[in-house]
Amino acid sequence: MRNEEYAKLHPMPRIVKIVIIVFACFLLLYGVLRFTPYPALATYQNRSYGFAVLDRNGRLLRVFPAEDGVKREWVPIEDIPAGVVRVFIRAEDSRFYWHPGVDPIAIAAAGLRNLRARRTVSGASTITMQLARLIRPRERGLQGKLLEAFDALRLEARLSKKQILELWINGIPFGSNIEGLPAASRARFGMEPASLDDARAVLLAVIPRRPGLYDPAINPEATATAALALSRRCTLNLDKAALMQAAADAAPDKLVDLKTPFYAPHFTDRTGSGGKTTIDLDLQLYAERRLAAEIALLENNRVTNGAVLAIDNASGAVLVYVGSVSWFDDVNGGKIDGVRVRNQPGSCLKPFLYALALEKGFSPNDILPDIPIIFGSSEAYSPMNFNRRFNGPVRFRVALASSLNIPAVYLLERLGVDAFEGWLADLGFESIAANRGSHGVGLALGNARVSLEELTRAFAVFPRGGQTLDQQVMSPYSAWIISDILADRASRFAGFGPAPTLATEFPSMFKTGTANQFQHIWAVGATTRYTVGVWMGNFSGETVVGRTGSSIPARIAADVLRAIEPRALDFPTAPGNVNRHHICTLSGMAAGPACSGITQEYLLDDIMPAPCAWHRGSVTEYPPEYQAWLAERFRWGRTHPQAAQNSNVRIRLPVSGSVFYFDPTLPPAAQAIRIETTGFSPEALVYANDVLQGSINHAGIFTLPLRRGAHRITVEDENGSAVTDIAVR
To answer: Would you state the pLDDT for residue 117?
Structure first.
């Protein structure tokens, strides 16, 4: 049977045709609403939001505005209490969940009210229509309303009710350059939306109606009256007194600190996002006060700024971050972040050098020379200690604890500058890695530029047992010994005396440092759990007036540790592969009955110190390399057969009969003998085995290259001559 004949015999009911037509129109309308271009929506969804930065306990540190300068934050709808959301829905659109974006009932009711009043007294905008107006503002009038309604229908076709509500509540204009409930809640009551109670919620909900009139910080009486009416519609148990009291909390004079929080500005500048951080606001403010108090006392010394950084050793989390004394002090560079600025750290690099030495086979009982030594060849380098004294032979432990310079340079010469640069790079000193190959032996004394952040994080490797946050970089033994040395008050006495600043009532370790011209003073201190670094100086690079000791930043570091760590905690115990030995305080060897001083040292279990060979009965025999130092220290003046022909001229060092030894680990060009004379005129000639070597300088000093064999050294000028015999092996 043909289709035409079948259709004539079985016609489609009219109602079905109507349903199909309506459904087709609906699909067409939905397609238009859902799929026609709406670029304004994407632009609105991707607009910038500010954010709030909080401390570890949720206290506000700082609020950043959006890129356009508007106070606008984003909070997911699920983080806003349901009761607060209901208040805002009830205030603006009670049938929000039932209409498709346009509310016919509200339109009819508004039209009736406007006809009765013969003017516009009421609108019929839904929440969706308000959002459409925020996305694309329209001109007032009938045409604008129709286009706004069309956009509202498009929003409903594209977004869920939850998404619409979330966009709207985070973008409602509240006046005073504030948009969105999160920003309004913070600006008016200093709290997150999650902390709003009913009274504050209704006070905020009435503001968007007339921001110029209904603002509890501007007009609390009118705002409370409008909020009371809304609370009754929301069936909330509130009265005018409760609303007035809540409105009073939004008064501007009570909100200065809440509306403009500005704590830890250098740290918050680095966050880049909102939410809780690891900063402890109480500790932050304490560190700021301590730094400011010490800087105020040094104003006449040109020490104008400083920085403090405190971290948790286990996680690396930052507890305190003070980038300068005052962000607002533009004269002294207050906006410069002293935690990241690179300056010379002085002796603060020494613990890392000594740790490398331990890794390379040195032991804490090894003897290091603290005597006049010239390092290098063509560019001679002769370091001095801070107190300009020489201590002769010193144990490894004492040399580090007392921060002696010559032993540090001696170690670096043997370990190699390149090896130390690589070691520092592995410990996180990016500044050293970036300039690798450009440092000399002065690196042992901290003549490179590093940041306080690099130094503090690297220092934490010691109480952390030799680990960075990513890997084990040194043995637990090396880390533990360095920690023990830097906590050893007795061993630091030679360099610092009693050092009461470093004598905390709980176990702690410290290292201080001072740059060459005293323009930068540093301290790092640590307990088992926390590390604190302090830098003080100026950002202009000027030298200071007078000398300011590193005990000043050490005081700050110790006080911050006290504030963080009120309980006494023990340092970790020694690793299991360590034995305690009684050693001679002078030679570092196993103590014997003739040794005048005995102490204890912790050595790896495969190291057994040899018996002391320096003490024989009542006689102390120093190795030959220390004879010259002894001659100067005790002013030995015995005349040798080869003594000066003129009693007014002589070779003071080296003493005749001295024996020097080549160090096979150093290049020959880096080894020399220092010849010191008295009574000669400048430019007196120096001979070795009758071969002219050169002339002394104005200080009466000459550096003779080291060569194996016996040497007769002669110095002469018109005043006479002097001779000394030495041997080099």
So the answer is: 60
DSSP at 590: B
Identify the H or E element spanning 592: none
- Contact present, 114 and 120 (Cβ < 8 Å): yes
267 touches 318 (CB < 8 A): yes
Q: SS3 of 318, please?
A: strand
Find tokens 């220290």 and name the residue. Answer: 633
Rounded to an integer, what distance in angstroms lies between the CA atom of residue 282 and that of residue 59?
10
Give tens-digit pLDDT for 31-83: 667 778 889 999 999 999 988 899 999 888 998 888 888 999 999 999 999 99
SS (H, E, C) 98-128: CCCCCCHHHHHHHHHHHHHHCCCCCCCCCHH
Which positions ≥6 away from 84 have C-beta within 8 Å? 181, 193, 196, 201
The pair of structure tokens assigned to 206 is 């009435």
CA distance 628 to 675: 10
Residue 336 φ/ψ, nearest 5 degrees: -75, 135
Predicted pLDDT of residue 79: 93
Give the integer Cα–Cα distance in Å for 178 and 4.
Answer: 69
Residue 379: the pLDDT is: 46
Best CA proximity match to 554, nearest among 388, 348, 353, 406: 348
What is the SS3 assignment for 434? helix
Q: Which residue has the tokens 């009118």?
A: 222
For residue 536, the tally of other CB atoms under 10 A from its CB is: 28
Please give the C-alpha separations between residue 394 and each of 76, 586, 600, 662, 692, in angstroms, as whole numbers.
Answer: 65, 7, 15, 20, 36
Q: Residues 350, 512: contact at Cβ < 8 Å? A: no
Tell me how far apart the alpha carbons of residues 456 and 434 are, in angstroms, rounded to a whole number: 19
- Cα distance between residue 594 and residue 617, in whole Å: 6
H/E stretch holding 255 reads none
On the question of a cis peptide bond just before residue 654, with omega within 30 degrees of 0, the verdict is yes
Please name the amino acid found at residue 662. Answer: F
The overall pTM is greater than 0.70:
yes
Say how far apart CA 582 and CA 585 lie, in whole Å.
Answer: 9
* DSSP run (H or E) holding 685: strand 685-688
- HEC assignment per residue over 398-430: HHHHCCCHHHHHHHHHHHCHHHHHHHHHHCCCH
Over the stretch 456-499, which tens digit does the pLDDT of each residue have? Answer: 999 999 999 999 999 999 999 999 999 999 998 877 766 666 66
Residue showing tokens 């432990």: 397
What CA–CA distance (Å, rounded) separates 40 from 357?
A: 65
Residue tagged 């043997």 (tokens):
414
Whole-number Å distance between alpha carbons of 435 and 392:
34
Whole-number Å distance between alpha carbons of 258 and 241? 24
Helix segments in 416-475, DSSP class H: 417-426, 430-434, 452-459
- Cβ neighbours of 648 (radius 10 Å): 10
Picking from 208, 281, 216, the residue whose alpha carbon sits closest to that of residue 242 is 216
Show the tokens assigned to 524: 């790092």
Residues of the chain short of pLDDT 50, as ranges, are: 1, 121, 254-258, 377-380, 635-645
Residue 516, helix vs strand vs coil: coil
CA dist 701 to 417, 566, 683, Å?
Answer: 27, 55, 10
Distances (CA, A) of 186 to 75, 167, 194, 199, 230: 12, 18, 11, 15, 21
Angle, helix 82-92 to helix 198-205, in steps of 10 degrees: 30
Q: Are 239 and 246 contacting, i.e. CB atoms less than 8 angstroms apart?
A: no
Biggest CA–CA distance in the chain, Å, is 149
Contacts of 433 (CB under 8 A, 6+ apart): 421, 424, 425
Quickly list DSSP for 134-190: HHS---SSHHHHHHHHHHHHHHHHHS-HHHHHHHHHTT-EEETTEESHHHHHHHHHS
